[in-house]
Amino acid sequence: MKIIRADVIVTCPGRNFVTLKIETDEGIHGIGDATLNGRELAVASYLKDHVCPLLIGRDAGRIEDTWQFLYKGAYWRRGPVTMSAIAAVDMALWDILGKAANMPLYKLLGGASREGVMVYGHATGRDIPEALDRYAEHIEEGYKAIRIQCGVPNMRSVYGVAKGNGMYEPATKGAVEEQSWSSEKYLDFVPKLFEAVREKFGFDTHLLHDVHHRLTPIEAARLGKSVEPYRLFWMEDPTPAENQAGFRLIREHTVTPIAVGEVFNSIWDCKQLIEEQLIDYIRATLTHAGGITHLKRIADFAALYQVRTGCHGPSDLSPVCMGAALHFDLWVPNFGVQEYMGFPKEALEVFPHAWSFDRGMMHPGEAPGHGVDIDEKLAAKYPYDPAYLPVARLEDGTLWNW
Ligand code: CS2
Ligand code: MG
Fold this sequence. Notes:
This protein is an alpha/beta fold and 402 residues long. Helices cover 37% and strands 17% of the residues. Strand 7 (206-210), helix 7 (217-226) and strand 8 form a beta-alpha-beta unit. It holds the Pfam family MR_MLE_N.
């Protein structure tokens, strides 16, 4: 089966998404997600101008060889733009393979390892009472794992909290939003938030929290230690992970589990973290870490060290990534949890999908391939609308990690 066409579709049904569509001479097509929040057009161009022409005439079934060809053949390895582009090709080719075999992707990977995929939702509030109300709603909806983020008293803004009553969406139109940050205020406040959750709801739900790269290693160690009584499922991205050895310091002081990796692109970004057992969950995801072919490699490597998966799943990864991730999660032996932030209604219409949600558990469905398609006519009604992620500054104006 030969590839005869490859097109890039950029659309903004509620938020921007980049999708690659590959067509074959047997009339089967597959799609892959290539969305890189705030830098979408770089990946669209990488695909359109440099990758799509190389795909024409290739055997659609040679997925591994195509991956190696795009990775090694570019000479310039890794990086978010390259790896998102390779991921989109890989996802689309696995989709095609599934359709050709008339099998859902999870069966091609080796079959289901569990009945369903546990997902965590986002409970956010401007203050503790509001965050607890959202937490209660998630329990009502059947969530078994819930992430909580909350406004910090006397801080102008905080990461992860929805504006108004809508869904949480960090990217904004126009100028880059500048938020302010104080690690001291945050560290004093956040244990009180977890205490309030455990006091009100007990220990029946898995409690998660995202630090979003805001602390230094010693501060993260202090946070992890101070919240041990609340038994978090994980504290996410406690400090930036470019310096992987920095996590040794955190590990020496606390048994609070650590999840890292939503900004990683390859196995090399997490090699030391996994090998030295400095983390408990790896958050690398299909779209940004080279697709199914590469994430399988990361997960198998992680399994040697009892590190489990916890794939990134924000609304800025498209419903295509969500579908493919659920197949991956249903199969992967060392599964931990999957993030599920939900999508704007328009996005769910543009991307018809076989996946479903039921009381905190998700299933990819039985459609051949990854089970997600794109309605191109509808997609064309939502032109690209540039938006940027915010930045964070310390209270004295110093640019900090967002
Ligand atoms: C977050 C993301 O889901 C998460 O854990 O860290 O919302 C992240 O900020 C966005 O994906 C950035 O595009
Ligand atoms: Mg995160």
